[in-house]
């Protein structure tokens, strides 16, 4: 297979895989990312076993929530992206969760003080005032979030040099939580090695994790993808670094 044909084949492969939900299993053997040391799914499972009402915001396809072994009597998940809503409803039947389609802007469609626990893995935005409103007194918000400049090396491989990131800093999340009247009780950070073995994995990732290169399409960035493909062929896997932080905030 010629290099041109191989490139086109890999591009087509990465562009043709469905990206609904938040399951990255297609990348097995093609890309990898270190896991944060705190074990978010285990933390969520442990908390869920101790509460009576919980909410998962931006559930994606419900993949993390579906693994909770002891769900609370009332379990609700929200999702704004329509293709994910039906995926989440199918996935979360096993834990008895109700999936609610929501708008991409506040408010949350729940009464004040509805939940003992609110969780969210990689939220698009964190509506701190709304989280504080729907939490019961003594309730907690536990979230694993995307940190500032995550996989910046990949973004710059496609877009060129970028200015320093101005958003998604952990300190900003702490300030916003406190401004909403919450008490921050835990904050942890991690930098995670992320490896892409071929350009198909890159295309799939950019289609799925849309904030890495906003407005990404294969046609728009074909030249940049070709240069990155050639670099992987010559130098080996492309390495970037994901940024994550864990924050827990409690309503007094």
UniProtKB/TrEMBL annotation:
Keyword Zinc-finger: no
Domain Methyltransferase type: 55-141
GO biological process: methylation
Alphabetical list of SUPFAM superfamilies matching this protein: S-adenosyl-L-methionine-dependent methyltransferases
Domain of life: Bacteria
InterPro entries: 23S_rRNA_MeTrnsfrase_RlmA (IPR052939), Methyltransf_11 (IPR013216), SAM-dependent_MTases_sf (IPR029063)
UniProt keyword list: Methyltransferase, Transferase
Gene Ontology MF annotations: S-adenosylmethionine-dependent methyltransferase activity
Organism annotation: Micromonospora globispora
One protein family per Pfam: Methyltransf_11
Name recorded for this polypeptide: SAM-dependent methyltransferase
